[in-house]
Amino acid sequence: MATSVKHLLGISGGKDSAALAIYMRTKFPSIDVEYYTCDTGKELKETYELINRLESALGRQIVKYNSIPEGKTAIENPFDHFLASYGHYLPSSTSRWCTKKMKLEPFERHVGELPTISYVGIRGDENREGYISKKENIQTIFPFRQNIWSEDVIRISLSQEMLNRFEEGLRLTLSGGSLEQMLEILNKPLSLMYTRAQKVQALLDFNTKSFNHAVHHVLKITDYPVGKLEEFELLNSTDVLRIDDIYNILESSGVGIPAYYLPLNYEVDVDGMQVQGTYSRSRSGCFFCFYQQKIEWVWLLETHPELFHIAMGYEKDGYTWSEEPLSELAKPDRVAMIKRDHWKKTQRQKNAQDSSVSWKTQVLDAEGHGCTSCFI
Predict the structure, then answer these.
(1) What is the distance between the alpha carbons of residues 227 and 2, in angstroms, rounded to a whole number?
(2) Which residues of 207-226 are buried (b: 16+ CB within 10 A; e: fewer)?
(3) Domain count, the chain
(4) Quick one: 165 exposed, middle or buried, by C-beta within 10 A (0-12, 13-18, 19+)?
(5) Shared domain check, 186 and 55
(6) In terms of Cα–Cα distance, which of 111, 152, 109, 158 is closest to 131?
(7) Is 231 inside any structural domain?
(8) Are residues 201 and 180 located together in one domain of the fold?
(9) Are residues 140 and 168 in the same domain?
(10) What 8-state DSSP symbol labels residue 139?
């Protein structure tokens, strides 16, 4: 009898997790995914609106995980409850107790000891790994990437101890010349000039499906949850989804792009000239997230002034959301300076991008006319 494996997908309120939920429901309907969210009590109203629209599109409930352990009474909401327990020590990039207490712990408490696959929406155009649970019964899968596996799985699958097992897995889907070429890539020694990451990319580029099936063959003799499945549909996926694909999924499904991602206009004086720029939020999560850029704090001040002042109220006894107290950031001269700096930075990036496109156009034009003298 096959071991029961749980499939979970967390909804953060951001575009990527929302698009992944729709993608999994549409592309892999036979996988019984449970959708969940961890409510901090300090989300933007746009986040709750997105979750409601997403529930309608999925035809499934998004389960809310409770971050307050049973038997303990929350002080108004989860964030304030944990803030009190931490002695009003505000979370920061070096002390992310908010993520730990209100996201990770309720997730792992809900999972318990059941073998679980957690689906995470890191895109194919992002270069980061994302959260990997330390619990052995939880395995993370990245459906939007060409490489759906986490780094720990890759490390084990390509280890010397598993080499024969990996080769066996390749032989299940390949033969003849294709098999020999794949084995040649696999057995090429690593060096400073040929890293494991380069080897993985070469194997994936040669045959993504065969690579995935070989990894699965290795996992079958481990305790990884995917290895407990006889069949796993994502092994045959060759999709790589990037930012434009995410927006297309959200628009076509009717869920739409979260409102806080939509650019809004602002005006600022730059060297005596009134110019127009745009700002928006770059992330989901609490409205006072300490990872926000200065311009995002200004966005919050001007679009949700009541929330900005709530965030400002949390700053006391030397604890602030960043190195600059919000009471200083909110001053008109400081707001104008932040907008001015943001506008200049945006212009520099735009000019650099235009220059890059222009240079590539010149190269293509030269190559198209057989001119190579400039590139010797």
Answers:
(1) 11
(2) bbebbbbbbbbbbeebebbb
(3) 3
(4) middle
(5) no
(6) 152
(7) no
(8) yes
(9) no
(10) E
Cβ 338 vs Cβ 294: under 8 Å: yes
Domain assignment of residue 230, yes or no: no
Q: Is the pLDDT of residue 368 over 70?
A: no
DSSP string, 342-365: HHHHHHHHHHHHHHHHHHHHHHHH
The pLDDT, as a whole number, for residue 281 is: 92
- Pair 85, 109 in one domain: yes
Token pair recorded at residue 196: 């494991």
Residue written as token pair 């600059």: 324
| Amino acid letter for position 357 | V
Can you say whether residue 153 is alpha, beta or left, with left for phi > 0 and alpha for psi between -120 and 50 degrees?
alpha
Give CA–CA dist 242/246, Å, rounded. 6
- What is the domain-level CATH number for residue 251? 3.40.50.620
Pair (181, 316) in one structural domain: no
Range of the domain at 311: 263-370
Element holding 54 (H helix, E strand): helix 45-58
Query: Residue 119: left (phi > 0), alpha (psi -120 to 50), or beta?
Result: beta
Whole-model pTM: value is 0.87
Largest interatomic CA distance in the chain: 76
CA distances from 172 to 34, 115, 147, 176, 353 (A): 32, 26, 20, 12, 46
Among 113-122, 195-204, 314-323, the range scoring the smallest mean pLDDT is 314-323
